[in-house]
UniProtKB/TrEMBL annotation, chain B:
Transmembrane listed as a keyword: yes
Protein name (database record): ABC transporter permease
Keyword Nuclease belongs to the record: no
Keywords linked to the UniProt accession: Cell membrane, Membrane, Transmembrane, Transmembrane helix, Transport
Membrane-traversing stretches: 114-133, 145-173, 193-214, 252-277, 297-320
Pfam families per UniProt: BPD_transp_1, BPD_transp_1_N
Subcellular locations according to the entry: Cell membrane
InterPro entries, per database record: BPD_transp_1_N, MetI-like, MetI-like_sf
Family: Belongs to the binding-protein-dependent transport system permease family.
Major place of residence: membrane
Membrane topology classification: Multi-pass membrane protein
Domain ABC transmembrane type-1: 106-316
Amino acid sequence: MTLLSFSGFGLSFRRYHGLLASCETPVLNDIAFTIGRGEVVALVGASGSGKSLIAHAAFGILPPNARMHGSICLDGQPVDERTLPALRGRRMALVPQSISHLEPLARCAKQLRWAARRAGRPTDRETLARHLEAFGLDGDAAKAFPHQLSGGMARRMMMAIATVGDADLLIADEPTSGLDDENAEIVLSKLRGLADQEKGVLLITHSLAAALPYADRVCLIRNGRMEGEEAACAFDGAGEGLRSAYARALWQALPQNGFQVAHHA
Amino acid sequence: MTRPLAQSLAVGLAYRLGRLAVVLLLVAAVAFSLAKISPIDPVNAYLGDDIARVGPEQKALIAERWGLNEAPLTQFVRWAQNILQGDLGYSMIYNAPVSEVIASRFWTSLPLVGLAWLLSGILGFALGVVAGANSGSWIDRVIRVYAYVLSCAPTFWIAILLLLAFAVFLGWAPVCCAGPIGVVPEDVTFSDRLRHLALPLAALTVFGVSQVALHTRAKMIEILNLDAALYARAQGATKLDIVLRHGLRNAALPAVTILFASLGELFGGSILAEQVFSYPGLGQATVAAGIKGDVPLLLAITLCLTLFVSVGNMIADMLYRLVDPRIRDGDLLTGGDHG
């Protein structure tokens, strides 16, 4: 059952040249994909390919000079300025990209409580402590300020904050950047676990190899365009099962596949 | 945390106090030199109207007695020694020891400057938060125009306008002084004091508000564009929620810092405001000492204000380290380049 769908989605930024002349710089084009319940969909693309903007567009937190076209739907209902206030935090939640998305001047426990209140969830101490425990975070971590947490703990804290609202859809923006393999594994298996509980997960990442073991489907983005959607299991062998040439080239260029660089259009 | 908070605080404080002593010494030296090279002749200033009845021989005698013929450095050292022993000298124009003049003037100025400081802080912060949270809207424009106009307008001009409007035309407030004319200070009632305080206080507050408001507004806009505020939006936070939880938290400290750092300007403003309202405070005494050549009083006030403003800046600087958790847990000494 489809939870989130992007169709014919595009994004451009309006820039001003001088006083009056303005021009639109297209950033994303022809983005279309769906996420169903129980699914992890990986959105893979290089840095600067516009992946994070897709997450921001879903939450309606793009900069003011952004122009969108196409449609974003959650459960078949359009996601727009009118419906977003009831969706943010409650129906869909964001795992932010970096620690800078947490309030530097508030203790983590407090921020977890804010997130719970914003999502209309219980905010009592016991519930929240239990929620943190599920991410291997104790009272000390809760009392810490964000800058005092280690990289792995900070990431788990952001996961805890993102999931406290028990939203159906989770969008994780580069949740493993800056993490060692062990911590990255913890985070990714947590996301997989959430999908196994009938939630939908959009995993935005630049690392195809890291995402593959946990994803059901992979959407490839290049230069702001979709370069095809593949089943995660098709990334196998020499990539015979892959539909797009770009996916095959990417797959063959991975270290374990011999760094082969295919030349294609 | 590298060191216990109390210990690093003590070290930081000692370092700052040492620096404060150096600042005071430098200001004393500069102020003394300026007084020495100024055309004020201490003997003439001392004699005042009696100058006609004193001959040059007697003047020379007084100069000799005061040690005015000695080397400037010797004079400076003697003056500094006296100050360290608590002897600030004798004020000729008020005919009282300088320490007494400053103390009594200070207590008159304190409610004025202190309340203006507090009110301009609270009002300025509130206006800045409202403007910053609604940047670009009409309310932001109104607050901004208000703040720009006021920060361009000289205090004495505002003071005169207030005086014209409320004391002369409307007659709501008294025209001058800290109490009714002809009543000894001890007999002035509290409500009378308040009535006389109102206009100078308004002038000074109106002056102080704009700076805090403009700084808070800029800070607020900056905070609302940070990742943390963006993420709060993605969590479903309302604008009010973001302003209260993220905005106030981050904007409060810079505002308090500005407030402490602006003590100097506030005193500058109070000198003019007190002059316009004939409010017998420290500011008015400063002007009188300058005009009538009361060197000991002028130098002592300079030192007192230096101490006051420096301590204000010091508090501002240390407050940051004490309150911001990102700085608090580090060393208080590192990064203390501006104090």
